[in-house]
Write a structure and sequence with these properties.
This protein is an alpha/beta fold. It has 2 domains: 135 residues; 116 residues, Glycogen Phosphorylase B (Rossmann fold), CATH 3.40.50. The protein has 9 helices and 11 strands. A hairpin with a 2-residue loop joins strand 1 and strand 2. The longest helix is centred in the C-terminal third of the chain and has 18 residues.
């Protein structure tokens, strides 16, 4: 089917409708060790996208909802017609899926406001349960630069990163995915994260890619599920310009201890199938 990405791992199949969502599918799969499934499981990664005839595939249907609509204070982060269409697609998906994992716990009030909330509340799980159940080794950088991956067009990311580049060596990579992205990112000191809109996000998929690449994340403020100074380094940290290798390594390791124990996808999957 046009614009459909699929990844097959035996009885586990990932389906997505965008290259970035396919990256998330790939990353989640890399974090699984040995899981024997009792039946076929189809993971729809990014259910804000229309899935078309993919809904008619047979098997246990699990949806991952990646869009963040509300910040930790319940304020809408990016109102607009596009987001309204996303919400319509999600509501439709609620009827087709057995279980939904919304990786943004702050979206709880969005679902609670729906008329169908009493019918669907038991099929939604909240939190960034997309991480591996094993710790990934920190990788020593081979250069003194930082990297931002992803698109910088049509958002505030471009101007923010250009300002950063006036002070720090930051490379931009927009066309690598999968293992190539991990291998490329592993050469740098850390991975930069800049929010698409000016709001507070969890950015769990980007944190996951950074972690699997063996790198810590330097980011604008994240949702409190991630602790600043422990699980990531703030982009305005005074030590940014002269980060010691020990701090980079410790940040990566602290994140690993936290997410592998609390937010593993394999553990989540075992609990719902």
């Amino acid at each position: 089917m046009k614009n459909t990405y699929t990844l097959d791992y035996g009885m586990l199949k990932f389906i997505s409708k965008h290259a970035g969502l396919n990256q998330l599918s790939y990353d989640i799969a890399q974090g699984m060790e040995s899981l024997t499934l009792p039946h076929k499981v189809i993971v729809f990664c990014g259910i804000h996208k229309k899935q078309g005839i993919n809904w008619f595939r047979s098997g246990f249907k699990l949806g991952i909802q990646t869009e963040q609509f509300l910040d930790p204070n319940g304020i809408e982060v990016a109102p607009g017609s596009k987001r309204d269409n996303y919400k319509k697609n999600i509501i439709y998906a609620l009827e087709k899926l057995h279980v939904i994992l919304d990786i943004n716990a702050s979206n709880y009030k969005f679902y609670q406001s729906l008329e169908i909330w009493p019918k669907i509340k038991n099929k939604i799980v909240f939190g960034p349960r997309i991480f591996p159940n094993f710790e990934v080794k920190y990788k020593e950088p081979i250069n003194d630069k930082y990297i931002f991956f992803g698109s910088i067009s049509n958002s505030r990311r471009g101007p923010v990163i250009e300002e950063l580049r006036k002070k720090y060596p930051v490379d931009i990579e927009s066309n690598l995915f999968g293992k190539q992205l991990h291998d490329c990112s592993s050469k740098y000191k850390a991975i930069i994260n800049v929010h698409y809109f000016e709001a507070i996000y969890s950015e769990a998929p980007r944190i996951l890619t950074s972690y699997l690449s063996g790198k810590p994340t330097i980011s604008e403020t994240l949702c409190p599920i991630f602790e600043c100074g422990k699980h990531y380094i703030h982009i305005n940290d005074d030590s940014f310009s002269n980060l010691e290798r020990s701090k980079l390594k410790n940040t990566h390791q602290e994140l690993g201890k936290y997410v592998t124990q609390k937010y593993s996808f394999e553990g989540f999957l075992r609990s719902v199938i």
